[in-house]
Amino acid sequence: MNLKQIRYALAVAEEQSFTRAAQRCHTVQSALSHQIAKLEEELGCALFERTSRRVSLTSAGRAFILPAQRLLSARQTLVDEVVSASGTLSGTLTIGTISTLNAIDLTEKAAAFHRHHPAVNIRLYVGISELLLENIRQQQTDVAFVGLWPGDKDMLPVSHRLLSDEPLVALVSPRHALAGSRQVTLQALAEVPLVDFYSGTGARRQTDRAFQAAGVRRHVSFEIDHIEWLENLVRSGLATGIVPVSTALRLSGLVAVPIKDGPRRQVYCAWQQPLSRAAERFLQFSGLGPAEA
């Protein structure tokens, strides 16, 4: 068994295709298939079920994934630590963030860090808070910026820092009937078409619980997974959004209306110990400080 075989197997699992996995790994399909066959022979079991239409993991394949990911991560950590000990900070820093992060300028911080440590490769991606926290736990992400309902703090890993705590507001187009209101109630919002994040996400729980606590039933007409969809639907006048006040202030041309007894959103920086050298240095460089107890 070697690292190349493990990388190939993980690529097939993620792509669900030998052809796409070979393209991703910059090799020919026959070579990739041969290496995976050798890996399966050594393990004594098949990792994949192959049909003419699809490739799926066997039960053994599903058991293989997480330890394989950890092995590759440990190998990279080993390389990073040795190189860093020589005086040059290197490696890969993976940072995940929600799409409505306003508490810090992540782009500016990442750019400034890279100017000081050009040998560090930085990977940035956007996701919902639940995915980001799971990737932290699985050690697939070094640092994550997540937004949570105040009651969901137990979802956080041990190491985290509160960055902001702010109210959510109703976001409407200037032509909307609520645009001239000084304040709006949850009951009034329940009577207009709403756009919100998918059910089950942290952002959605924030608003669901607020309506439930007020004893108000509502109907979400549009479900989205990114703030840009919400912005476009609000601008078109098709729906009213409920967003953090800092997000509303960034969206020019739209109107933010305070919500009476409305929900709040807390934003955290979270990470899992042990940190890589690059992640540790990034947190120090960015002034994100120690964990909050």
UniProtKB/TrEMBL annotation:
<dbReference type="InterPro" id="IPR005119">
    <property type="entry name" value="LysR_subst-bd"/>
</dbReference>
<protein>
    <submittedName>
        <fullName>HTH-type transcriptional regulator gltC</fullName>
    </submittedName>
</protein>
<dbReference type="GO" id="GO:0003700">
    <property type="term" value="F:DNA-binding transcription factor activity"/>
</dbReference>
<dbReference type="Pfam" id="PF03466">
    <property type="entry name" value="LysR_substrate"/>
</dbReference>
<dbReference type="GO" id="GO:0003677">
    <property type="term" value="F:DNA binding"/>
</dbReference>
<dbReference type="GO" id="GO:0032993">
    <property type="term" value="C:protein-DNA complex"/>
</dbReference>
<keyword id="KW-0238">DNA-binding</keyword>
<keyword id="KW-0804">Transcription</keyword>
<feature type="domain" description="HTH lysR-type">
    <location>
        <begin position="1"/>
        <end position="58"/>
    </location>
</feature>
<keyword id="KW-0805">Transcription regulation</keyword>
<dbReference type="InterPro" id="IPR036390">
    <property type="entry name" value="WH_DNA-bd_sf"/>
</dbReference>
<dbReference type="Pfam" id="PF00126">
    <property type="entry name" value="HTH_1"/>
</dbReference>
<dbReference type="InterPro" id="IPR000847">
    <property type="entry name" value="LysR_HTH_N"/>
</dbReference>
<dbReference type="InterPro" id="IPR036388">
    <property type="entry name" value="WH-like_DNA-bd_sf"/>
</dbReference>
<comment type="similarity">
    <text>Belongs to the LysR transcriptional regulatory family.</text>
</comment>
<keyword id="KW-0678">Repressor</keyword>
